[in-house]
Description:
Elements (H helix, E strand, L loop, with lengths): L2 E3 L5 E3 L3 E2 L6 H14 L3 E3 L7 H11 L7 E6 L6 H15 L6 E4 L11 H17 L6 E4 L3 H10 L6 E5 L7 H9 L3 E5 L11 H10 L3 H11 L3 E3 L5 H8 L8 H8 L17
Parallel strand pairs: 3-4, 4-5, 5-6, 6-7, 7-8, 8-9, 9-10
Antiparallel strand pairs: 1-2
Helix pairs in contact: 1-2, 1-9, 2-3, 3-4, 4-5, 7-8
The structure holds adenosine-2'-5'-diphosphate.
Amino acid sequence: MDNFVLQNGVEIPSIGLGTWENRDEKSVIETISAAIEIGYRHIDTASVYANEKFIGKALKNAGVDRHKLFITSKVWNTERGYAKTMRAFEQTLNDLQTDYLDLYLVHWPASPSKYENWAELNAETWHALEDLYKMQKVRSIGVSNFWIHHLEPLLKIANIIPMVNQIEYHPGYRQNYVVDYCKAHNMLVEAWSPLGRGKMFSVPELVQMAAKYGVTVAQLCVKWCLQNGVLPLPKSTKPARLKENADVDGFTISAADMQVINSLQMESSSGQFPDEIDF
Ligand code: A2P
């Protein structure tokens, strides 16, 4: 797998393994072992996924040099603020059995619909990430689920611009305005649920196009992300699917077909909008 290069020069493997909802110890350990065997080196987790301890165990068992792995985690919504973020980070390191992270993200912005002091709260959390970066406890820092109205005030107070914004992104929910803003500010966009949690598999245009290229819809979605300069984080617990989702080098989506996907008229988001979530 190739790499994307972040604004600070850190290389990040171009397809990562999403691990949301995989919280059973046996399943996590089997999935991570299979993924490593297949060639995944980029694992995306979060404290709220409640699987960091199992991922830590699986990675220890896998016997791959830590420096060859790229591990991302995220600070949860109840841990916002400087001191709490610092504590949450140490817990995450402990659970993952590592002494540094490759990428640490603010999982969701504090939003204006919920907090009067939302911008200050995001600023405090961000300053904690900046300090962790300066202390070299994390190789890169970023945010997740931030829309432009969350990013703008953050950029005003930031000493370090977020290197990544991880958002929901798939053919059924493209969030072009966020992607364009991030690209203009040199932030790599990562796609959570790049397969639309499976909803893309029955979109007729994608089914037909995948058949034309002799690939699966999952592979088409992964490749579409990559060709749009977005880093996909497909999730699976099944070895055959892990392999399939990472096996996308053998075809290129034509410019005309990229345009077809980029103009699909559908709204198929998860409905988890940063100003509306109740968690
Ligand atoms: P499973 O874990 O049983 O493979 P997303 O990454 O967009 O959130 O989608 C994840 C969902 O898609 C999961 O339900 C996962 O189920 C399923 N999935 C992942 N990869 C594939 C694939 N290649 N073919 C079919 N289903 C897949």
